[in-house]
C-alpha cells in the first residue's frame, strides 16, 4: 500500500486522545461520609445526671482524653423543651428539630449545655436534609460552646472535620482533627485513617503514609478506602514500586473485585509495564467485567501504544462496538481507522474513516480519508473527501486544494 500518512504521529494522537494521562482507574484518596451521628438518646444520656448522679451513664468512648469534661448539665427550666427536641429528632422531623433548636440556642435562660445539645441535634438534622452548610455551622457552634461531655464534644469535632473535607476545606478539616486528637487522645484506626485520607487528598503524601500504615496495621478489617488512600500517597511521593506492591497484594486478595484489578492495571501503567497492564485488562474483558466505554478505550489505547498492537486494538474496538459498550463516536472510529490503516488493511480503514469524518468537529479526518483514497487510486472519492475537508475547515487548506486538483 502506498502509505501517505505518518504512522507514529497519528497513533500517538489516538493514544493521547483516548488514554489521557495513562490511568486506567484514577487512584485517589476519598474521604468517607460522616459516621459519627448521634441519636437523641445518646445525647440525652449526657443530661440524665440532672436527676440521678451515677445512673444510666454513657460508655466513655475516650478514656485517654486530656479534656476535662464540663460539669454543667441541662438546666431544669429547659428540660421539657430538650425532651421535645429529642422526640422530634427520633421521629426524623428535621425541620421541627432545627426550629426548636434555633429557639433554644437563642433563649436567654438556656445555659451553654442546653445550647450545645440543641446545636448537636440540629447539625444531624441538617445533615439528614443534605444541608451541609448549616450542619457545619451547627457543629461549629457545638464545639465552640465546649459544654458537652467528651463523647458528644469529640463526636461533633469528628463529624465537622469530615464535612469540611467533603467540601474540600482540607486545611480546616486537618485543623479540626488536630484539635480532636489533641483533646481525645484517640488512637482508633478509623480516626487515624481519616486524617491520613485527608492528608493524601491534600497531596501531603509523606505525612499521610505513616498514619495510614498505622491504621491498617492496627485494624482487624481495614477498609478499602484506607489502602486506596495509601496507594495515592505512595504515588504522590513518587514511590510507584510500593504503590504497585500494595495494588498487587489487594488484587490478589480480591481477584473478583473489579476496582482492585483496575487499580492494579493503573499501577502497571504508571510503572511503564504496559504488558502486565494489558494482561489485567484482558482478564477483565474475558470475564465480561469491562462494562464502561472508558474501560474499552483504555484497553485499545494500550494496544495502540505497543509495537504491532494494531490487530489486538482492532479486536477490542470491534468487540466493544458489538457489545454496545463503546460509543460510536469520532474518537472510536478514528482509532479503528488508524489501526486498520497501519496494519495494511486499507479497505476497512476507509470504512472506519468514512464513519469518523462526519462526526468530527473539523475537516482533518476528511483530509486524512482523502489521502488514503488517493493511495488506493480512488481519486474521485478522494476529491470529494478533500472538498468536504475544506467545507468543515482544516489547518492547511492548500493541501486539500492540491488533492481536489488531481
Features:
mainly alpha, Serine Threonine Protein Phosphatase 5, Tetratricopeptide repeat, elongated
Structural description of this entry:
The chain starts with 6 loop residues before the first helix and ends with a helix. The longest helix is centred in the first third of the chain and has 17 residues, at 112-128. By secondary structure, it is mainly alpha-helical. Mean pLDDT is 89; it is low at 6-25 and 44-55. Helix 16 (310-322) runs antiparallel to helix 17 (330-341) and helix 20 packs antiparallel against helix 21. Helices cover 66% and strands 0% of the residues. The chain contains 21 helices and no strands. The protein has a domain at 33-186: Serine Threonine Protein Phosphatase 5, Tetratricopeptide repeat. The chain has helices spanning 7-19, 40-44, 79-90, 94-106, 112-128, 132-145, 150-166, 170-184, 189-201, 205-218, 224-236, 240-253, 258-270, 274-286, 293-304, 310-322, 330-341, 346-356, 364-375, 379-392, 397-404.
Amino acid at each position: 500500500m502506498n502509505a501517505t500518512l505518518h504512522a507514529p504521529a497519528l497513533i500517538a494522537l489516538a493514544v493521547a486522545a483516548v488514554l489521557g494521562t495513562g490511568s486506567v482507574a484514577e487512584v485517589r484518596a476519598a474521604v468517607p461520609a460522616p459516621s459519627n451521628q448521634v441519636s437523641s438518646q445518646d445525647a440525652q444520656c449526657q443530661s440524665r445526671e440532672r436527676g440521678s448522679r451515677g445512673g444510666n451513664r454513657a460508655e466513655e468512648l475516650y478514656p485517654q482524653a486530656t479534656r476535662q469534661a464540663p460539669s454543667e448539665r441541662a438546666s431544669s427550666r429547659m428540660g421539657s423543651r430538650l425532651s421535645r427536641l429529642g422526640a422530634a429528632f427520633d421521629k426524623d422531623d428535621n425541620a421541627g428539630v432545627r426550629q426548636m433548636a434555633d429557639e433554644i440556642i437563642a433563649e436567654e435562660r438556656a445555659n451553654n449545655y442546653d445550647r450545645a445539645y440543641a446545636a448537636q441535634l440540629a447539625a444531624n438534622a441538617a445533615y439528614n436534609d443534605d444541608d451541609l452548610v448549616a450542619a457545619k455551622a451547627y457543629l461549629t457552634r457545638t464545639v465552640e460552646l465546649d459544654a458537652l461531655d467528651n463523647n458528644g464534644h469529640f463526636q461533633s469535632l469528628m463529624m465537622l472535620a469530615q464535612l469540611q473535607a467533603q467540601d474540600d476545606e482540607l486545611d480546616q478539616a486537618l485543623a479540626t482533627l488536630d484539635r480532636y486528637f489533641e483533646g481525645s487522645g484517640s488512637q482508633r484506626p478509623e480516626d487515624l485513617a481519616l486524617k491520613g485520607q485527608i492528608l493524601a487528598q491534600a497531596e501531603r503524601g509523606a505525612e499521610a503514609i505513616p498514619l495510614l500504615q498505622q491504621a491498617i496495621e492496627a485494624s482487624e478489617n481495614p477498609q478499602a478506602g484506607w489502602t486506596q488512600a495509601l496507594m495515592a500517597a505512595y504515588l504522590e511521593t513518587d514511590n510507584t514500586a510500593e504503590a504497585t506492591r500494595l495494588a498487587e497484594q489487594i488484587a490478589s486478595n480480591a481477584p473478583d473485585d473489579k476496582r482492585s484489578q483496575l487499580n492494579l492495571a493503573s499501577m502497571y501503567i504508571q510503572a511503564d509495564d504496559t504488558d502486565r497492564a494489558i494482561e489485567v485488562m484482558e482478564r477483565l474483558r474475558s470475564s465480561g467485567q469491562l462494562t464502561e466505554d472508558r474501560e474499552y478505550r483504555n484497553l485499545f489505547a494500550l494496544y495502540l501504544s505497543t509495537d504491532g498492537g494494531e490487530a489486538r486494538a482492532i479486536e477490542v474496538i470491534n468487540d466493544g462496538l458489538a457489545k454496545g459498550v463503546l460509543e460510536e463516536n469520532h474518537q472510536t472510529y478514528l482509532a479503528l481507522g488508524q489501526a486498520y490503516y497501519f496494519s495494511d488493511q486499507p479497505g476497512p480503514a476507509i470504512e472506519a474513516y468514512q464513519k469518523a469524518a462526519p462526526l468530527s468537529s473539523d475537516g482533518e479526518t476528511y483530509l486524512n480519508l482523502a489521502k488514503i483514497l488517493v493511495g488506493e487510486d480512488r481519486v474521485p472519492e478522494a476529491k470529494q473527501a478533500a472538498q468536504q475537508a475544506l467545507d468543515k475547515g482544516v489547518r492547511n487548506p492548500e493541501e486539500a486544494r492540491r488533492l481536489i486538483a488531481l
